Amino acid sequence: MTEGAAAKGRSPFVPLGFILLAFIFVFVNATMTAVELPAIRAEFGASFATAELTVTLYWAVGAGLLMVMGQVADRWGRSRMFLLGIVLNMVFSVLIALAPTLGIVLLGRVLQSIPFAIIAATAIALINSLFKDHPRRGTAFGLVGSAFGFGVGLGNLLGGVFAETLSWRWSFWLNVPVYGLALIGVWLTLPPDPKTKRSIDWKGAVPLAIGLATLVLGLAEGEDWGWITKQPDAPAPSWFGSVSPVIVCL
Fold first, then answer.
1. How far apart are CA 110 and CA 106, in angstroms?
2. Cα(23)–Cα(38) distance, rounded to whole angstroms?
3. Which of 42, 101, 176, 197 would suit a FRET pair with 77, their CA atoms being 20 to 30 Å apart?
């Protein structure tokens, strides 16, 4: 993120490419793990419902944090937040790749949902700023839509390849060089953040994040945990009795 990036005449499609690289891989990370569930279950001897949380928690917590991270980026700086998201994704990917237990994998996936929310929330805002009044603005946002679909499809492909040939852990090792390239590119090509004095409504943001995360979690796990009556695999304390945790989530 250098002063030179703001120089007139530089094509905004250069930083756009690096932004989309990171944007694509947050969705690759989501779908890769879904394909790799059988391999994860086999390694840790876990039930399907428990292993499935590696996917559900990523989406649920990430969805809950989207609006919060958008507000934080408006206050702290979108370029800075985007770079932070890339770094955190690299760190948490290494944690998951080295995880000795499924519990650490689940923890890593919850943590990885934080940079997912940061990158997803700030990417659109950054592109909007880069292409403000630009004649190819429509093209740029068309590429964003294509990047989402490409990331989902690529994740399914790579997940199957890693699960069948190497190990599901390689899907997270792959993040390190990919995000490393995105980090360098974004740092060198994005213009500095403008100064802002916007405040963050924490009293509204925190309950909203919790509410959205639990809603997504409840809707995703309702079939496995039971919509009303708790199923055997449902992760709920004994004092819940026979009540499904989905009731609490919703």
1. 6
2. 26
3. 176
pLDDT tens digits, residue range 156-211? 888 888 888 888 899 899 999 999 999 999 998 887 766 566 666 555 556 655 65
C-alpha gyration radius of the chain: 19
pTM: 0.75
pLDDT of residue 212: 57
Could you say which architecture CATH assigns to the domain 10-200? Up-down Bundle (1.20)
pLDDT tier, 5 (very low <50, low <70, confident <90, very high otherwise): very low
Three-state DSSP state, 243 = strand
Whole-number pLDDT of residue 89: 93
Which tokens in the block code for residue 203?
Answer: 């009293």
* Angle in degrees, 0-180, between the axes of helices 13-35 and 102-130, rounded to the nearest 10: 150
Residue ranges of domains in the chain: 10-200
Tokens standing for residue 77: 């700086």
Count of alpha carbons within 13 Å of 47, Cβ hemisphere only? 9
* Amino acid in position 151: G
